[in-house]
Amino acid sequence: MGEEILQGESMEEILQGEAMEISLKDLSKKLEEFAKARDWEKFHSPRNLLLAMVGEVGELSEIFQWRGEVDKGLPNWEESDKEHLGEELSDVLLYLIRLADICGIDLGDAAAKKIVKNAIKYPPKVTF
Ligand SMILES: [Mg+2]
To answer: Does residue 41 fall inside a structural domain?
Structure first.
């Protein structure tokens, strides 16, 4: 049995992708538990989290740096490069979720409302 690293899930379950049906709220709760368990909450101010996220955006950008244009689906990439990309995308997402939580923003709700707002601002082309 794997070591319990997050409440209710073992490391094996997570690594095998058995915990994939997960909501933004679930991730937010896990990040809160993660910070609490390590006494890192004192470091999680909005500004610190924003700067950490920007740092992760830099790490994400490095993956694409010097590659030129990249085809959708990344057909010519090594699996290890794709795995690295997934990790850096996750770092950005997790800091974004934590930042939203610490700021008291319901990110799922805000994002859904923003899509509606964008749809009104940019209506689809109607052809007759
Ligand atoms: Mg990173």
So the answer is: yes
